[in-house]
Amino acid sequence: MTETPRNGRNAVPLDELDRRILAVLQQDNRLSFAELAERVASSAASCVRRVRRLREEGVILADIALVDPGRAGKSLTAVVNIELEAERLDLVDAFKREMRAAPEVNQCYMVTGDADFVVMVTVEDIAAFEAFTRDRLYANPNIRKFRSMIMLDRVKFEPRVAI
Amino acid sequence: MTETPRNGRNAVPLDELDRRILAVLQQDNRLSFAELAERVASSAASCVRRVRRLREEGVILADIALVDPGRAGKSLTAVVNIELEAERLDLVDAFKREMRAAPEVNQCYMVTGDADFVVMVTVEDIAAFEAFTRDRLYANPNIRKFRSMIMLDRVKFEPRVAI
DNA sequence: CGTGAAATTAGTTGACC
DNA sequence: GGTCAACTAATTTCACG
Predict the structure, then answer these.
(1) Which of A16, B95, B110, B151 is the 20 to 30 Å CA partner of A153?
(2) pTM of structure
(3) What digits encode the pLDDT tens for the residues A3-23?
(4) Is A138 touching B (CB cutoff 8 A)?
(5) Domains, chain B, ranges and CATH?
(6) Cα end-to-end distance, chain A, whole Å
């Protein structure tokens, strides 16, 4: 019962050792394979093989440094719920492209429910956020309305998957 | 005992080279210092010194592997806007602790505006999400109401800061 | 800040149980 | 899957311009 292949569409079957490896690497990817092997109670060779496979299969998307926005001078984060003018495919695609191109936008999700899109924005201060709404939102005729929620406390930020 | 808010920390002064280094490492932290130096048009020694400093100062919070939730069998992500029963400090702190303890919760922000909290949840499927709402939300007497938005498309996920 | 060299550590590969 | 050994590459430290 340790094996639970899941059926997300492109899900890759992962065994318990894969899961332990991913759990560790999602917290620290700079460990040597020897250290990793110790933490997951396996051998370095096995970790080398598995990590390579997990990268090749796209389970591991990227290996990155996480930067503290505040320390880097971006002290304002906002969650913006956006409703488009119409649910037309061309408008939706155009909007996605704009969000992908906007450097202030860290995350953008198309969603069901009250909004069409949820966008997370990280900028220096309230003036920069005002400029963002003016240049990217008010200026955008595809947007019917949007509601901003300014972050007061980053309670949890763990861009990792519980596996 | 109330928790110390995490924002309001001081920004660290960064020069152009620091910014270029951070921009690269936020996309790939497995480069050798020689490669990094080449990309930022500097020397390996300087990169070594600066990266160590950026880590010590907390500008770089962590170095991690990014896992594709779908490939790892978690094909449902939801954004949940939550309103608490009362804006009492003890209720707020208790809620924060619960969200930090919940493995399905990747991100949790306390916000101004329509909601008190915005929570991002990643689980296997709709059944697991239903279980999450039942066990963590409906079961929670501190929550007055919540609104879920199910992710249809992860348009952009770049947990990095534009610097 | 930059170079280069030496010492140490880590990553890679292949043979083998 | 696991170990071991040998090879290559990267990191660390230091002296120096």
Answers:
(1) B151
(2) 0.93
(3) 444 444 589 999 999 999 999
(4) no
(5) 16-56 (1.10.10.10), 76-150 (3.30.70.920)
(6) 15
